[in-house]
Amino acid sequence: MNKLFQLLLTPIKASEEFAERFLFHRRLLVLFLFGLLTILLGWQATQIRPDASFVKMIPTSHPYVENYLYHRDDLAGLGNSVRVAVAARDGDIFTAEYQATLQQITDELFFIPGVDRSALKSIWTPNVRWTEVTEEGFVGGPVIPAEYDGSAESLEQVRTNVLRSGQVGILVANDFRSAIVQVPLFDKHPDTGEKLNYQALSEQLEQLIRDKYETDSISIHITGFAKVVGDLISGAAQVAIFFGIALLVTLVLLFLYSRSITGTLVPLACSVVAVIWQLGLLRLLGYGLDPYSMLVPFLVFAIAVSHGVQIVNTIALESAHGADRWLAARRAFRALYIPGLTALLSDGIGFVTLMVIEIRVIQDLAVAASLGVAVIILTNLFLLPVIMSLVGIGKTATERARRAEQKSHSHWELLTWFARPKGALVAVATASVLLAIGLQQGQKLQIGDLDTGAPELRPDSRYNLDNAFITGNYTTSSDIFVVMVETEAEQCSSFTTLSQVDRFQHYLTNIAGVQSSISLADVSKRVTAGLNEGNLKWRSVNRNQLVINASLSYVPAGLMNASCSLLPVIIFLDDHKAETLQGVTAAVADFAAEYDSDAIRFQMAAGNSGFEAATNEVIATAQYQMLAWVYGVVGLLCLLTFRSLKTLICIITPLALTSVLCQALMANLGIGVKVATLPVIALGVGIGVDYGIYIYSKLNTYLVQGMPLTQAYLNTLKTTGKSVAFTGLTLAIGVVLWVFSPIKFQADMGILLTFMFLWNMLGALLLLPALACLLKCAGHKQQEKRDAEAVKEMHDAV
Amino acid sequence: MQFDRSLLVILDEQDDSFLALRRSELIARQLHCGVRILWLGDNQTKALQLEEQLNSRGIHAVSDICDPRQMLKQVRQLWNSQHFALLVKRCDAPRQGFSASRDSQLLRELPCPVLLVKHDQPWHGQSTMAAINPMAKDQLHRQLNIDVMSLAAQIVRATEGQFVAASAAPSAMMGANPEMQSEALIQERVTQALQALLSESGLSADSFAVGEGPAEHWIPVAAIENRAALVVIGTKARSGLQGALIGNTAERILHRLDADVLVVRPGLAEAVIPMVTE
Amino acid sequence: MYQSSAPLRRFLLPLLTAAVAVLVSTSVFASDRLQAMSIPSTRATETLLLDITLAGDRVVTAGDHGVILYSDDQGRHWQQADVPFSVMLTALDFTSSQQGWAAGHDGLLARTDNGGESWLSVMNGDDINQLRLARLEQLYAQMEVQVDAQPDNDELLDQLDTLSFQLEDAQIAVEDGPAIPLLDIWFADAQTGYVLGGYGLLLRTVDGGQSWQYWGDRLPNPDSFHLNSMTRDHQGTLYIAGEAGQIFRSVDQGISWELLDSPYDGSFFAVVSQQDQLYLLGLRGHLFNSANGIDWQQVGIDTDKTLTAAVPLTREMLLLGQGGVLLTGSEDSFRVVDSGVRRSFSAGVAIGKQWLLVGERGITQLSAEQQEAGRE
Known about the structure:
The structure holds three protein chains of three kinds. By secondary structure, chain A is α+β, with helices and mostly antiparallel strands. Helix content of chain A is about 65%, strand content about 10%. Chain C contains four helices and 27 strands. The relative contact order of chain C is 0.09. Chains in contact: A-B, A-C.
């Protein structure tokens, strides 16, 4: 076994020799190369663009989504759309000024790039019509008559037309004080193939519509996925400001801690360089910034700072022992090479495993995170020591380090209680209790959105207020779940099909969360009634196929496909909460189980709520898969490095505790597990494992020299422990300020990250030695024996 | 290969270069061997003058001039035709930069042992330090170590000085094998390895100097502590890309030393040893 | 990963679900809507409801998807009845507090003997088609005999021709299946009742519904216009009103019928008798009244919405119709009342101080007092 580990260790050691020599003998060359790369990648990084896409957010290999993608061409307008509500602050919409404004807005929206013009709908578009039955039969026309002239009679006519168009509650508010323009979007333009630019769209909506038309008498409300993304992207500036604040806080605290200008600026600069490289590489590889991955650069920064501080601290210690700047940097490089590399590799490979989740956004995040961590190896493990070897750490810091070492007593001694059997038991017992509480609380963790509207933004954000306005005043919600009914060709309008779909829709009204639904069956029913003078008693699917055919002579777009083999049932939900979606999907599945046959199949799902249901299902399994992979990789690498199962337990247990408690925290804060929040816990593991590896490595160097655990622990605390504590606290302080961010997503992440930074730190400092104590007491003799054997082998080899 | 028992001395205009001449004189007198002077430049007169000077002192000397830019080529030619045993030169001042310095080029391109002279105090009665890395496992390295030590031992006998065996112990590396994690343990191991190597070669040192490396730091410190007049060191003579990236430890060390440095290539100490042992 | 579990899920889950569903009593077993059970629903009161009536103190209403609801507390709470079919039900009539009838699409006729708590299907479109075919065959045979007797009588020949076309239609209808919607039920008393439907359908029973005869041939309705509503005036004359302004009357308890001159050529949706007046409610705000059923006068009202039903009150009458239009009044004076509802009404009933109106948005409850108060 030992031989195997030796085999694996040799290339690492060989690489260290090479790296050390190259870096420290060719420092100027190294600086030049890094500088060049930084400029190149920095230039690339400035060109990085937001790259949001509807399809990236949904799990493309989930059956629901596969069904949707299969029928995608037939389901125009059910993917991505925006709703613009134009409201009259006083009075109703039947005034000349209001109608003029609505007309102008409809026209403006028509010309915005990315809009599916043929499917644009408002009372001013020709595809919205009224129908009525007279003695002669059906009559109909566009809601705004051709001869409209803004006069009182015209407006009366419009009022009548609106009432008989059936658009009340859909395009016109229930209280007649606002009207909606429904704007379907192309995710990808059918002719040019270019992707929808969400940021541009959102800006145009703001500038061309809201800014231009919102006045004392008119208010504008806009909702839709594209707007959420647009708002998030616009909020990126805010997000960046909060990153900046965290950076500043780290700068100040780091200086106060180290009292060394170079010792503060250099690690921070290298960490920033790591972020620049990461962004540049992403751009080079063709990625963009997703508003849901906006965390990653900060995480890269945080991890880089953790490593940087370790190195600077070690350099300070070496300086305190009398080494000159070059020597101190070189020795620190060598000393920290293996733990640093292991930690970063396990982070990197751990993040790569997130690719197993079949949602593009998360896969992109995996790439971004692992790239970032790989880059940290270069900037903070390689570049940082080289720069420090040139600038040195400064006399003040060296003096402080020397004095700290010579101090006979230190506050850290209090903590050594945890490394003694009694204290260790207490620590482990407390941890077990916390674990139990965490597991129990964590069961309340919900998948999907727990609130209405867009949870990434604050409830009082413009978007959520607009969303509340629209759901309050209209009957059709923006939470749409589409069931695709597949039939044989030309059978979508047969009596059997329509009556079964009709029954399905009635069945749905009994399902909690379903507001209403619409399908081809409704068209047939209404037109049949219309052909019989509007008599409600005829509003049923007629058994006579000829009557059905007559009723379907004009079908609005989107309710059946050209070959009459697909009819979508568009279901409007009260909300898109996870339990609502679960209820709906279960109900549809039940119905499908009974009714599906060769002739008819009820397939799920399209529409934004349909996708969300699919996403929720994938996430439910994914969250455990993800943790399994990350822990697996991290565990394996730790095992390879330290070659001891007990060490593995010591390092992994505090991490596991953090993960469990973090889930409990999420449950208690009302944060649901969604695409945006799913990777947080995995990322937390990546941050935490660094602390554990550094602390354990240092502890081990003392143990190997034969020191008793308590003394070894004390020495570790005084050196590495100090850095870990400092890093954990500083990053936590920097991140806790995010709570004030207007982007709720960032605020939530701030709380979770603060918790993880602090808890990982505490776990590494207190729980790890406690576990080591308990396990060491049990297996101390065994380890000693193995170490002695290993040393002997070394001797024999020489 | 038969070696000509002679020294090649490279001299040029600079004042310090006479250190090389003096050192060659000391060696030649001690070992009764010839000296070939290679003057860099076109001052034929000077070259002849120096030749005369040496001849007059009882040392068989010949001289040549050579274009400084052709130095390497010339030396190589001389080596091929005459197989001189040792090349003596004043140590150039350290020069930073991408391309290898003149001394580095000599050390890498030429297969002969090179003595870079830094002072003109006689070696007689002084310490001679052999700097080796006893932890190296491969055969080439081991042989080099043995060569260095043997040569150092011979020189010590010839100069009636002290033999100091020096090694730099690598710094501690966290996370590596347990024995690599403590500096004390590492130095212990290195000392043991050093002693083992010496006893294997049938040599014995007067003192040991083992300290925390890297070599570029420790060897010069040990040299000062032990007041070494001469440091014998081996070199792998990496050239080309490897030489550009990693370089050679020997080349690094020699700039930090105040002592003379005798750099030995693998396998060619044979040339010098016979010369020395007589 | 996900895909490998998908086939399993697709297979296993439907199996399990099917198994569970079979066990659950209220399963939605797949079949034609004439046999499929009506789905019990918590939102049944919001279904499209088409008729509402009283069965003693109980209010019963019926509508789309076979939804039948009843309430014993004047509309505060509703229960859904057991209904073994899911067609749209368009009309209800109770002959006593226990016995009642419902009619709907696909020719469905159903009855209840427990005040509407559970229902049984009595007849469907196939049965009706058979009744009609039998009757027309009978008539045709009789006509043939007559023609044989008078081969030169052109009128008889024309009638035979007409009958032969009608017979053909009836035969085709039998092949087409149960496609006739029934639109109204009216019982004169516990024994005698009529069912009206689309395309001139009329059925009659004289034995309390145990057997029904096809009666459509008794009406002079060559164009087979839809028959929408039936009533009886204070003198016992029966009236049927229908599509395209058709009004029929019978003075001999429904044996024979005559077509009256119509004041309007648009459809009538209800014919109502209140005190001594008859009213016709029709398309686009057309309201007519008559004292004798022959001479009709248009009543001017302030709406052009279609009127579909009338609810007799103590002194007045409530008229309701499309777009939530509501009027109160009597004789030739009616006022529009704001119902506060924009969805169409189909029928209504007054009970206690409540008006229970049904239509597009299910059940609407209006307080009679508030409406009265609002008026003043």
